[in-house]
């Protein structure tokens, strides 16, 4: 679960950035809840997924994925949501993946992801 300004960053670079190469990263994602129904993901909460250049942490590609409201049929990964972030390599070296709250000033649970 991602809450507030939490983030998850892969600490090992991936060799998936050949100049002109086409890449797609696919993953499952869903809602999150810490305790009571009021703490669950709402319609404006989401995950931001970024492909960063390992050499300087600059963004090569990014996308926002909103899992919807926590509730019946949409608990955690129950809804079967699948995301894909496509990008074109620029040949600047390895890349790393980062997943973070799409609204880092919002003190809410934004979702759960499984890569």
Structure description:
With 115 residues, this protein is mostly beta strands. The chain has a single domain, classed as Jelly Rolls (Sandwich). It is built from no helices and eight strands. It has strands spanning 2-3, 7-9, 22-30, 47-53, 59-65, 81-88, 95-101, 109-114. The protein has a four-stranded antiparallel beta sheet, with no helix packed on it. A four-stranded antiparallel beta sheet has the order 2-7-4-5, with no helix packed on it. A hairpin with a 5-residue loop joins strand 4 and strand 5 (59-65). It starts with a strand and ends with a strand. The mean pLDDT is 88.
Number of strands: 8
CATH class: Mainly Beta
Number of domains: 1
Query: Which descriptor suits the 3D outline?
Result: elongated
Spatial gap, N to C terminus: 13 Å
Mean pLDDT: 88
Percent in helix: under 10%
SS field, number of helical segments? 0
| CATH fold descriptor | Jelly Rolls
Low-confidence stretches: none
Instruction: Report the sheet with the most strands, covering strand number, pairing sense and barrel closure.
Output: 4 strands, antiparallel
Beta-strand share of residues: 35-45%
Tags for this entry?
43% strand, mainly beta, Jelly Rolls, 115 residues
List the helices and strands and how they pair.
Elements: E1 2-3, E2 7-9, E3 22-30, E4 47-53, E5 59-65, E6 81-88, E7 95-101, E8 109-114
Antiparallel strand pairs: 1-8, 2-7, 3-6, 3-8, 4-5, 4-7
């Amino acid at each position: 679960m991602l809450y507030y300004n939490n983030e998850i960053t892969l600490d090992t670079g991936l060799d998936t950035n050949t100049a002109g190469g086409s890449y797609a990263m696919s993953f499952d994602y869903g809602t999150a809840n810490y305790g009571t129904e009021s703490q669950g993901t709402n319609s404006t909460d989401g995950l931001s997924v970024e492909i960063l250049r390992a050499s300087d942490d600059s963004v090569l590609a990014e996308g926002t994925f909103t899992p919807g409201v926590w509730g019946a049929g949409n608990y955690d990964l129950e809804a079967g949501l699948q995301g894909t972030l496509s990008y074109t390599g620029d040949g600047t070296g390895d890349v790393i993946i980062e997943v973070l709250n799409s609204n880092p000033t919002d003190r809410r649970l934004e979702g759960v992801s499984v890569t």
